[in-house]
Amino acid sequence: MKHPPARSGRGALRRGAAAASVAALLASGTVALAQAQASAAAGCKVDYTTNDWGTGFTASVTVTNLGDPISGGWTLEWDFAGNQQVTSGWNGTFAQSGKHVTVKSPSWAQTLATNATANPGFQGTYSGTNQAPAQFKLNGTVCTGSAGPTDPPTDPPTDPPPGNRVDNPYAGVKAYVNPEWSAKAAAEPGGSAVSNQPTGVWLDRIAAIQGANGSMGLRAHLDEALDQGAGVVQLVVYDLPGRDCSALASNGELGPDDLDKYKTQFIDPIAGILGDAKYAGLRIVTVVEIDSLPNLITNAGGRPTATPDCDTMKANGNYEKGVAYALQKLGALSNVYNYLDVGHHGWIGWDDNFAPTAQLLATVAQASGSKGNVAGFITNTANYGALQEPYYTINDSVNGTSVRQSKWVDWNRYVDELSYAQAFRQELVKDGFDSGIGMLVDTSRNGWGGANRPTGPGPKTSVDAYVDGSRTDRRIHLGNWCNQAGAGLGERPKAAPAAGIDAYVWMKPPGESDGASKEIPNDEGKGFDRMCDPTYTGNPRNNNNMSGALADAPLSGHWFSAQFQELLKNANPPVR
Ligand code: BGC
């Protein structure tokens, strides 16, 4: 996530290409279809919503099973009214022949309980009017919006209440300070000013559960949390098969097909420890597998930014299956709070990434047994997006030209993480998550203070001059993600700082590298990603800009003293 940045650039570039046509954006219409009746044991309802931009569109299809439970897979069919053509789809396998479209359930989500929903979606092209299909069929039955006159009226689908969890696990309690990170921070000049801050504990390999290379294992951290009298502990659960399919710096130890190993040697032992009655009084926040699901949307499946590794993971379904398994096992523990990763505004903030990502998260959460297994979501993990841009907003324009048309914003809908997190929360609630879900924002390295921080808006001579003069995010390009030069510590960790936000957190421990600046042989599975090399001149994902990375960085996760010192120097709010 670190490193999701790579993805960001990709999103940006695509968006740039489609941009001109997007100008007139998107009325979105919902068509709930209700017609005459089919049979009592089979029934379905379909909500079909599109975002149109004149020649292309994205569609969200929410199908609710109103009949008996479906276990052997489902097939949804419709005929387009016009010349619509599906170009890529998600949460289902799409096939089109003429006007006829068939969507089959993904291998990892074959069941559809009574009143459960599936959320396939797709991107398509059209000309003329983008009229919704007149009729949908689920497993051959026409979706009429009811299961038949003989059935009692059905309530909308609901998830079980989230047990006896509190609404916000951060509220009113002290968060655990990782003594290992704390000691490294305190050993840096001036570091003791922040070394008492809570940071994430990363379970980034099987050996980390017991303690890799002499460091504390999971039990040691939990015992220490009890000793500290902490009320909440923050874990990052990060060892998915084929981990980090779009960047090399955080590739992991498990191969693309190692799902069983992931379940039995990673998730099961973690769940076993967290379930120990001794820890029942601790609230345990688990950030489940950053980067993974958003990568399936932006970097796979026919997108121009697809990578072979992400295509492999999309095809084998092991990200979805792994995350669903983790959510189910961890969600069964009533003191555990699962948070899923929603990337950051510079990655998922474009229209063609935003809704599809939310829908995929909803489908995977549902595949875990219940969306109630998810307490919330995190943005900006290990990224550098500013929390709030004080000197410009997405609604500003210069001589009638929207800032969305500037090179920096490049048609994104957001300029900062707080606005993105709050909007994404709404989208998730629309997709069926509980309205009580809360967001976390990783503010560990998004402060952008120091001498280069603007002190007011830029000149209104051109939209680019305005945005570049106003923005506090001083990256060379929004898609840069590795050890960014000029970054500073951001807001200190804080519970309930803003509407819809459970906490500002330091999930990525400041001072831990995002990736090595050159090839370093290692036994952690980590590759060399040139986005971490300061001499790299970039690729299409960051629009061929310099990487902006600091020199002489160690492997991801390893201590990077020079970076820590720079983060401290450029902190905003300033330290002390
Ligand atoms: C690395 C992990 C590390 C984490 C926190 C990631 O980039 O891949 O190994 O634990 O950062 O620093």
From TrEMBL:
<keyword id="KW-0136">Cellulose degradation</keyword>
<feature type="binding site">
    <location>
        <position position="481"/>
    </location>
    <ligand>
        <name>substrate</name>
    </ligand>
</feature>
<keyword id="KW-0378">Hydrolase</keyword>
<feature type="binding site">
    <location>
        <position position="202"/>
    </location>
    <ligand>
        <name>substrate</name>
    </ligand>
</feature>
<dbReference type="Pfam" id="PF00553">
    <property type="entry name" value="CBM_2"/>
</dbReference>
<feature type="domain" description="CBM2">
    <location>
        <begin position="37"/>
        <end position="146"/>
    </location>
</feature>
<dbReference type="Pfam" id="PF01341">
    <property type="entry name" value="Glyco_hydro_6"/>
</dbReference>
<keyword id="KW-0732">Signal</keyword>
<protein>
    <recommendedName>
        <fullName>Glucanase</fullName>
        <ecNumber>3.2.1.-</ecNumber>
    </recommendedName>
</protein>
<dbReference type="InterPro" id="IPR016288">
    <property type="entry name" value="Beta_cellobiohydrolase"/>
</dbReference>
<dbReference type="InterPro" id="IPR001919">
    <property type="entry name" value="CBD2"/>
</dbReference>
<feature type="binding site">
    <location>
        <position position="347"/>
    </location>
    <ligand>
        <name>substrate</name>
    </ligand>
</feature>
<dbReference type="InterPro" id="IPR012291">
    <property type="entry name" value="CBM2_carb-bd_dom_sf"/>
</dbReference>
<dbReference type="InterPro" id="IPR006311">
    <property type="entry name" value="TAT_signal"/>
</dbReference>
<dbReference type="InterPro" id="IPR008965">
    <property type="entry name" value="CBM2/CBM3_carb-bd_dom_sf"/>
</dbReference>
<dbReference type="GO" id="GO:0004553">
    <property type="term" value="F:hydrolase activity, hydrolyzing O-glycosyl compounds"/>
</dbReference>
<feature type="signal peptide">
    <location>
        <begin position="1"/>
        <end position="34"/>
    </location>
</feature>
<feature type="region of interest" description="Disordered">
    <location>
        <begin position="139"/>
        <end position="170"/>
    </location>
</feature>
<feature type="active site" description="Proton donor">
    <location>
        <position position="291"/>
    </location>
</feature>
<dbReference type="GO" id="GO:0030247">
    <property type="term" value="F:polysaccharide binding"/>
</dbReference>
<comment type="similarity">
    <text>Belongs to the glycosyl hydrolase family 6.</text>
</comment>
<keyword id="KW-0326">Glycosidase</keyword>
<feature type="binding site">
    <location>
        <position position="383"/>
    </location>
    <ligand>
        <name>substrate</name>
    </ligand>
</feature>
<keyword id="KW-0119">Carbohydrate metabolism</keyword>
<feature type="binding site">
    <location>
        <position position="508"/>
    </location>
    <ligand>
        <name>substrate</name>
    </ligand>
</feature>
<feature type="compositionally biased region" description="Pro residues">
    <location>
        <begin position="150"/>
        <end position="163"/>
    </location>
</feature>
<feature type="active site">
    <location>
        <position position="244"/>
    </location>
</feature>
<dbReference type="GO" id="GO:0030245">
    <property type="term" value="P:cellulose catabolic process"/>
</dbReference>
<feature type="active site" description="Proton acceptor">
    <location>
        <position position="514"/>
    </location>
</feature>
<feature type="binding site">
    <location>
        <position position="512"/>
    </location>
    <ligand>
        <name>substrate</name>
    </ligand>
</feature>
<feature type="binding site">
    <location>
        <position position="204"/>
    </location>
    <ligand>
        <name>substrate</name>
    </ligand>
</feature>
<dbReference type="InterPro" id="IPR036434">
    <property type="entry name" value="Beta_cellobiohydrolase_sf"/>
</dbReference>
<dbReference type="InterPro" id="IPR001524">
    <property type="entry name" value="Glyco_hydro_6_CS"/>
</dbReference>
<feature type="binding site">
    <location>
        <position position="344"/>
    </location>
    <ligand>
        <name>substrate</name>
    </ligand>
</feature>
<keyword id="KW-0624">Polysaccharide degradation</keyword>
<keyword id="KW-1015">Disulfide bond</keyword>
